[in-house]
Amino acid sequence: MENTIELLQKIGNKILNQANIHDLVALNFEAQGFSKLGDKYKSHALEERDFSQKLFNRILDLGGKICYQNQVSFGVPASPLEWLRHDLEVSKEGLKELLPLVGAASNDLVTYDLLKDYYKDEDDDLQWTQQQLDLIDTVGYQNWLTQQL
């Protein structure tokens, strides 16, 4: 159970960090006039906060203590294209790291279901980002940007 709590603590803090980054990305895009992108990342930040809260609640259910872990400084990429490319790589790495952790939690079905749901949500986000990059290749960056206003 101690390993499960440590695992949840690590993942919960990582998700919370991503939520904070996505809030900043949303602000950045809104300031540039890309309201659809701003809304997308605001919504994504809320989903991530919800997932982190579920993981932290699970820690409490298991009798553990939750803690906030300091995060590393991060400069938000300025352009939407730069951000999408960065976010795609982060998603790929995150899913690669998360998959064995989901399996490791299989002896605790509640934790397993939480992590599995988060994995699915992150995979959906990766697919969306890849779709946007494919659209940019198809319609051109300027045309895609126009759709994000």
TrEMBL record:
Residues 1-140 form the Ferritin-like diiron domain. InterPro entries: Bacterioferritin, Ferritin-like, Ferritin-like_diiron, Ferritin-like_SF, Ferritin_DPS_dom. Keywords: Iron, Iron storage. GO terms for biological process: intracellular iron ion homeostasis; iron ion transport. Pfam families: Ferritin. GO terms for molecular function: ferric iron binding. It comes from the Bacteria. This is Bacterioferritin. It comes from Streptococcus ruminicola.
